[in-house]
């Protein structure tokens, strides 16, 4: 085996797809790209997200306590990267990148109609924001866009390359310990 820097750990453990996070600051929507997130528990569904003061959305999430996490498909790969390369303090990203929105039910941040999934979230724990930029969010509503033909997701490897999600492996019959989960 060859040893590499421990700073590369996130490149092998990043578990979930790259996502887009929407916010709304007094009616002005914004969107950012995020790769550092994790499921924390099943019920209530809690999600940990790293959003720091370097992100324009940071202050909005602190002030409003809400956001939407949207999961894009592979067909939005270039848009996802481009959204992450500019700041909402100077660019209307929805307009620049032609992202279509829909109104959410419980939060003021918009859903992204072009994405596979949208999760309306509220901040339920801020204790780790100060030391780690870690927000704990509770998923309040889950929207699945069943009309999307492209179903594959992107997984960032931390260096500008991505792994593309492909097919599925069904081992439900073997998962006897977790059958009670929805």
TrEMBL record:
Pfam families: Flavin_Reduct. Its EC number is 1.5.1.-. SUPFAM superfamilies: FMN-binding split barrel. Its cofactor is FMN. Keywords: Flavoprotein, Oxidoreductase, Plasmid. One of its GO terms (molecular function) is oxidoreductase activity. InterPro entries: Flavin_Rdtase-like_dom, Flavoredoxin, Split_barrel_FMN-bd. Residues 11-163 form the Flavin reductase like domain. Belongs to the flavoredoxin family. PANTHER family: FLAVOREDOXIN, FLAVOREDOXIN-RELATED-RELATED. This is Flavin reductase family protein. It comes from Ensifer adhaerens (Sinorhizobium morelense). The lineage of its organism: Bacteria, Pseudomonadati, Pseudomonadota, Alphaproteobacteria, Hyphomicrobiales.
């Amino acid at each position: 085996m060859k040893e590499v820097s421990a700073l590369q750990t996130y490149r092998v453990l990043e578990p979930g797809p790259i996502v887009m996070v929407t916010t709304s600051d007094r009616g002005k929507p914004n969107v950012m790209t995020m790769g550092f997130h994790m499921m924390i528990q099943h019920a209530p569904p809690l999600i940990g997200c790293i959003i720091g003061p370097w992100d324009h959305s940071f202050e909005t999430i602190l002030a409003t306590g809400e956001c939407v996490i949207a999961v894009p498909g592979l067909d939005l790969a270039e848009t996802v990267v481009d959204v992450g390369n500019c700041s909402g303090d100077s660019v209307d990203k929805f307009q620049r990148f032609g992202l279509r929105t829909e109104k959410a039910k419980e939060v003021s941040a918009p859903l992204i109609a072009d994405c596979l999934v949208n999760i309306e979230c509220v901040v339920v724990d801020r204790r780790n924001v100060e030391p780690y930029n870690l927000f704990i969010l509770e998923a309040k509503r889950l929207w699945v866009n069943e009309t999307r033909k492209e179903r594959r997701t992107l997984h960032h490897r931390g260096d500008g390359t991505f792994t593309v999600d492909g097919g599925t492996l069904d081992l439900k019959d073997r998962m006897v310990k977790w059958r009670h989960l929805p």
